[in-house]
């Protein structure tokens, strides 16, 4: 039911749109309007406030309310680097804006996986602790959560103090802070290909020169990395060693050691992205543990394991870098949500997060095994996932991944074509990133099976 204030706001808006009230015209004073509409002055104030908020009218102190002057701004052509950056996040737009019956291309876990009943009940109560929960809080993040996280990282052999941890609005915000601080326009930056496409968009937006290093089953091609590091003189390498997005593969200990040796020879700073650290085995090796956070910067997030809507990630690095990144954080977003950080802290210390992770880990492992079996049953090979949400499904060379995704969308099936995970527009990857949670869906398997069967090899 519409309120009196809303009905008054609508009536005034209609007069503006019809031309009865022209730009600059003064609205009835509050007292006069209250008598005219037969309501209280507070109701008129509420109606006028709604119109001010929507930009329909302006409030002038001591004078009254006036119809706003609308300025038509001509559209400006987008700079080339901006257009390229936005094009690279087209897959993210599909995930957030559109509705699909089958979401095999999703980068997020299904709601049923992260909606643990006991965690949901706990978060729903909104228990966030002390009375200062509505204040900005410490710019590095809620101190008790940083203390708890330091202990968690210690269990991964990553030794940090609370002053070496900075909380962010998710891992993507962490990338943004690091790029702002470490990358200048024109700088060469090493990335994995296929790799994390939002990162490519951020680098494009910053006008960096993206230098791709091929990622395989065992990690990045280290011979290629060394050659390109030397040729480009890049000083930064973004890598996701474990449960890689999009291939689902992980580096072993020997490969990590060799990567660190290359980084030392070529003075590389390594950004280690580890979104699935909380559900990987405790003994899993990490670059940050081997390096001691000397030249490795470690990123993590709770968004992949607790809830995508709880935008909370973090950076662990040497104290000098954290201090600089904290300053940039304050300049750009002031602070992260202390309320969310308190909620996460309470869920962890109550033991609920640990029990939730145990269940989630089992779901991921079981779904990964089933996904590979189902896909192979329809003639598609996939790299074995290693603990995250993704697997890399190889397509026959005659099956175009981009065209396949378009055809799937017509059937309300969301696919993530591999070519979108390459940093350069002309690069192609005849593969799909498939979320293991959706890989066994009968509608997806039927569609993919028919696509493979309908496209025999040339001359076959």
Describe this structure in words.
By secondary structure, this protein is α/β, with parallel strands linked by helices. The chain is 44% helix and 13% strand. The chain folds into three domains: 4-67, Orthogonal Bundle (Arc Repressor Mutant, subunit A); 101-110 and 358-454, Alpha-Beta Complex (Aspartate Aminotransferase, domain 1); 113-353, Type I PLP-dependent aspartate aminotransferase-like (Major domain) (Aspartate Aminotransferase, domain 2), CATH 3.40.640. It has helices at residues 4-18, 30-37, 41-53, 80-88, 90-97, 111-114, 117-124, 143-155, 171-182, 197-205, 222-232, 253-265, 287-291, 319-333, 338-349, 352-377, 401-410, 442-454, and strands at residues 57-60, 64-67, 165-168, 188-193, 209-216, 219-220, 236-239, 269-273, 296-301, 313-316, 381-382, 390-394, 416-417, 431-435. The longest helix is centred in the last third of the chain and has 26 residues, at 352-377. The radius of gyration is 26 Å and the shape is globular.
Task: Count every helix, treating DSSP H or I runs of 4 or more residues as helices.
Answer: 18
CATH fold annotation of the largest domain: Aspartate Aminotransferase, domain 2
Question: Given the helix and strand composition, which structural class is it?
Answer: alpha/beta
Termini separation? 66 Å
Portion in strands: 5-15%
Quick one: how many beta strands?
Answer: 14
């Amino acid at each position: 039911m519409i309120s009196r204030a809303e009905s008054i706001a609508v009536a005034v808006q209609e007069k503006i749109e019809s031309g009865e009230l022209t730009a600059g015209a003064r609205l009835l004073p509050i007292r006069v309007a209250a008598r005219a509409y037969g309501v209280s002055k507070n109701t008129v104030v509420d109606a006028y406030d709604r119109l001010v908020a929507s930009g329909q009218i302006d409030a002038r102190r001591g004078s009254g309310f006036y119809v706003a002057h609308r300025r038509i701004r001509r559209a400006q052509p987008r700079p080339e680097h901006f257009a390229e950056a936005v094009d690279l996040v087209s897959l993210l737009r599909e995930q957030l804006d559109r509705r699909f019956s089958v979401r095999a291309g999703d980068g997020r876990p299904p709601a049923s996986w992260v909606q643990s009943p006991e965690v949901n009940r706990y978060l729903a109560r909104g228990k966030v602790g002390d009375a200062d929960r509505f204040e900005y809080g410490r710019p590095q993040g809620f101190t008790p959560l940083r203390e708890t996280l330091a202990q968690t990282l210690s269990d991964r052999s990553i030794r940090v103090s609370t002053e070496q941890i900075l909380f962010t609005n998710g891992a993507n915000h962490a990338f943004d802070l690091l790029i702002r601080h470490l990358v200048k326009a024109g700088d060469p930056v090493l990335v994995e290909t296929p790799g994390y496409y939002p990162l490519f968009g951020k680098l494009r937006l910053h006008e960096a020169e993206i230098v791709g290093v091929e990622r395989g089953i065992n990690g990045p091609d280290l011979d290629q990395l060394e050659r390109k590091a030397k040729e480009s003189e890049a000083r930064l390498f973004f890598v996701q060693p474990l449960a890689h997005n999009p291939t689902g593969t992980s580096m072993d200990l020997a490969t990590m050691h060799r990567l660190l040796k290359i980084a030392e020879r070529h003075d590389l700073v390594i950004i280690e992205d580890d979104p699935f650290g909380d559900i990987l085995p405790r003994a899993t090796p990490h670059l940050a543990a081997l390096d001691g956070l000397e030249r490795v910067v470690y990123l993590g997030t709770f968004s992949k394991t607790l809830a995508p809507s709880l935008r909370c990630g973090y950076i662990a690095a040497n104290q000098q870098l954290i201090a600089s990144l904290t300053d940039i954080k304050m300049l750009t977003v002031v602070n992260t949500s202390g309320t969310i950080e308190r909620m996460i802290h309470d869920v962890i210390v109550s033991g609920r997060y640990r029990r939730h992770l145990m269940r989630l880990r089992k779901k991921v492992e079981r779904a990964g095994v089933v996904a590979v079996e189902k896909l192979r049953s329809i003639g598609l090979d996939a790299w074995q996932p290693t603990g995250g949400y993704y697997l890399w499904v190889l397509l026959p060379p005659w099956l175009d991944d981009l065209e396949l995704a378009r055809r799937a969308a017509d059937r309300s099936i969301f696919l993530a074509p591999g070519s979108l995970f390459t940093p350069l527009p002309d690069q192609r990857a005849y593969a799909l990133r498939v979320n293991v949670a959706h890989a066994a869906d009968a509608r997806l398997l039927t569609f993919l099976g028919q696509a493979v069967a309908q496209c025999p090899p040339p001359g076959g």
